[in-house]
User: Which sequence fits this backbone?
């Protein structure tokens, strides 16, 4: 937790998490078989925990995994320069999104679609990645790693 509090103080990393990244939420079932789903609208809370949102139906197995073993690894990757960060932590809770949450999700999706469009992907390609029904996930980060391609990939942050 202390590592992540130092992390959130670094503005570049906070901007990566809360801007337009592709977000991949990794979990594992009881047999440690990995599961991945897309995440949306991440934000760092004052206590250092992180809220993000997953699509309800495509993310059902991921949510079940979180409720069973609590292990989560989230990768944030900029679609324009591939700057990437992986944060590992412990699931705290899930819940229904508020209207403000839904606005955060839509804002992230709009920014992600715009970044994708700048790379030549039409808006309908990006919007095919999400559904209208999301669930909120809150987790407490414990470790963070630079996952940007290059010599420093995998190094703790």
Assistant:
């Amino acid at each position: 937790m202390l590592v992540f509090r130092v992390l959130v103080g670094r503005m570049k990393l906070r901007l990566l998490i809360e801007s337009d990244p592709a977000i991949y939420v990794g979990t594992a079932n009881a047999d440690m078989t990995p599961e991945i789903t897309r995440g949306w609208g991440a934000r760092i809370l004052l206590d250092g925990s992180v809220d993000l949102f997953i699509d309800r139906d495509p993310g059902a197995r991921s949510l079940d995994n979180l409720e069973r073993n609590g292990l989560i690894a989230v990768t944030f990757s900029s679609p324009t320069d591939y700057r990437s960060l992986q944060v590992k932590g412990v699931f705290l809770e899930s819940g229904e999104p508020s209207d403000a949450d839904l606005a955060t999700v839509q804002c992230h999706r709009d920014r992600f679609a715009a970044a994708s469009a700048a790379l030549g992907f039409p808006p309908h390609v990006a919007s095919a990645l999400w559904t209208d029904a999301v669930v909120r996930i809150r987790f407490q980060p414990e470790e963070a790693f630079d996952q940007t391609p290059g010599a420093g990939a995998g190094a703790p942050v």
Q: What stands out?
A: The first strand starts at residue 22 and ends at 28.
